[in-house]
Amino acid sequence: MIKNICRLTKLLLISGVLFFSAQCAFSTTLPSNILETIKKELPRASVRFDGLISLPDGTVYLPVLPSNPKRTAKGNVAVTYPAGKKLSQLPEVVLFDTNFALLKVLKTKDGKLTVTDTKNIPFVVKTGIFPQDMLVPPGLVIPDDLQIMMGDLKIATKSSRVNDIFKNTKQPVNTKVNTKIVPVPYMVGKSLLVTALDSKILNIIPSDSTAAKFTLRLENLPKFIQPVCNDKYILVASAGKTYIDVADVSQGVIAKKIDISYQPSEIILNSDKTKAYVAAGNDQSIFVIDLKAMALLEKIKIKGYPKNIAISNDDSAIVYQDKNTGDIYTLALDETYLNSYVYNASNVSKLVIKGNNIFIISRTLNELMVVDTELKDIIYKQEVGQKPVDMQLINDKLYILCAGQEIDIFNLADFSYEKAMTFAGKGFLKKMIQIPNSDMLLITNISEKKYYIYDIKKNSIVQTVNTDVFINDLQLLNNSVK
After folding, report:
1. What integer pLDDT is reported at residue 481 of this predicted model?
2. Distance CA 44, CA 38 (A)
3. In whole angstroms, what is the distance from residue 115 CA to residue 118 CA?
4. Can you tell me the distance from the alpha carbon of 125 to that of 130, in angstroms, rounded to the nearest whole number?
5. Which of 113, 156, 152, 106 is nearest to 129 (CA)?
């Protein structure tokens, strides 16, 4: 009898908060008037896609959705504990005039996470419920008489995997190795995300060090890593898995899994970084992820099995290659989703699309090809260095990275070509990414434990950094992981 009453109570509570959660089927959207108050009182607060609120100083608030919301209220703070506090003073309990509430996550003397004593929490808050898609901070202990607020939410325990995602990587006690370096100005305060070919570990290396400070333990070998949402989260896909992990950098947890039912293989972002386009090598589709809600937005059916996906600077089209046939297609990113065959090429390393031109580098032919999407044929060919593997479009110039220790430059304005520079030493160059707001590129060497910083204005390597790991993939965080 008691169990049936509890179940009924839970159902009533959940139905009572559908008004708030119905705005998005995949994520918790806080009411707009509540968000306005939070932004006004706590301008540096970050609201995660599941409703959890965090501040730069580490303060975390759990949202509580009301069972009896007041729809005509203004979203002002009505009650706090301790009493009379402003939201900016970070009280332990905040009750708004809509009956929406916030509970501050507290730390006990023995280091456990909890919330304030239940006697400090108004009854109307106790009748509410936590967002059912929220990942509760690892190790949080809820008082017994607040259990009804959990609904069907699963709370991570201390033994849960999410509690030890980011691990401090400490040097041996007696080590004499100096891992510190002086980063170039544009790299100060940044971190590198690094994966290796044969490791399930994602290394987080501060820009002033040659060694990883933290590691992210993945379930399998990583297929791609991609920082998103101003580097608050990292999208991670692992081999053999049909979902994308969303790692919350500040909280150090896997906050969500986005299941696409197929193995994700590549990812690209649109220009304002609100959407991610994901290719699945074993499905004739491209998946669209809404990065604000961290939810699967759409599945676009296409011709062929996509690889080497790229997006135009104006977000008007995607170009990709069918991994089985070598056929290259464009996909219009409008309401038509027009999917058009353009050309067939072999051993393609990278594609870039700009206007009506697709730029293709072939690793075995050692050449750059320019294909007109309307003519559907090559309009220009250019021999480049040995084994071209990557290229970046910067200020109407293509920077082509050749594994055989060379960078070439191709000017799109007049189709002129120059051999920019040759690297000293040996190795196999793999990838390059642009350092934000700079004229510098990070370049990886997969066969040696090092990366380079190349200044495109000076046309020279301005820094070579040795690392503890062989770098397969590399991304850049614009902050230091603490």
Report:
1. 67
2. 9
3. 8
4. 10
5. 152
Q: What is the pTM of this model?
A: 0.79
pLDDT digits (tens, 9 = 90+) for 278-309: 999 899 999 999 999 899 999 999 999 999 99
Q: Please check whether residue 295 is in contact with residue 258, taking contact to mean a CB–CB distance below 8 angstroms.
A: yes
Hey, what's the torsion of the CAs at 436, 441, 444, 445, to 10 degrees?
-170
Chain CA centroid to CA 355, Å? 28
Contacts of 278 by beta carbon, 8 Å cutoff, 6+ apart: 237, 244, 260, 264, 266, 267, 286, 287, 288, 289
* Cis, peptide link before residue 172, omega less than 30° from 0: no
Low-confidence ranges of the chain (pLDDT < 70): 1-27, 154-178, 481-482
Spatial separation of the C-alpha atoms in residues 478 and 436, rounded to whole Å: 8
Q: Is 18 helix (H, G, I), strand (E, B) or coil?
A: helix
- Please say whether the beta carbons of 136 and 48 come within 8 A: no
Residue 226, beta-bridge partner list: 235
Q: Are 88 and 42 in contact (CB under 8 A)?
A: yes
Q: Point out which residues pair with 217 in neighbouring strands.
A: 201
What is the distance between the alpha carbons of residues 12 and 330, in angstroms, rounded to a whole number? 50
Phi, psi torsion values for 5, nearest 5 degrees: -65, -40
Q: CB within 8 A of 142, min separation 6: which ones?
A: 114, 115, 149, 150, 155
Structure tokens at 363: 């690793």
Q: How open is the CA angle 227-232-236, to the nearest 5 degrees?
A: 40
What's the 3-state SS for 285-319?
EEEEEECCCCEEEEEEECCCCEEEEEECCCCCEEE
Every domain of the chain with CATH number 2.130.10.10 lies at 169-219+264-477
Give, in degrees to the nearest 5, the angle at Cα 368 between 364 and 372.
Answer: 125
Answer whether 434's CB lies under 8 Å from 394's CB: yes
Mean pLDDT across the chain: 86
| Cα dist from 133 to 136, 148, 208, 320, whole Å | 9, 16, 37, 34
Q: What are the tokens at 440?
A: 């510098």
What is the torsion angle, in degrees rounded to the nearest 10, for the CA atoms of residue 382, residue 386, residue 389 and residue 392? -50
The CA-atom distances, in angstroms, between 301 and each of 315, 344, 407 are: 18, 20, 36
CATH value of 169-219+264-477 in 3.40.605.10, 1.20.1250.20, 2.130.10.10, 2.160.20.10: 2.130.10.10
pLDDT in tens, 31-75: 999 999 999 999 999 898 888 999 989 899 999 999 889 888 999
Length of the chain: 482
Each residue's pLDDT tens digit, 250-274? 877 788 899 999 999 999 999 999 9
Is residue 41 helix, strand or coil? helix
Give the count of alpha carbons within 13 A of 339, CB side only.
Answer: 14
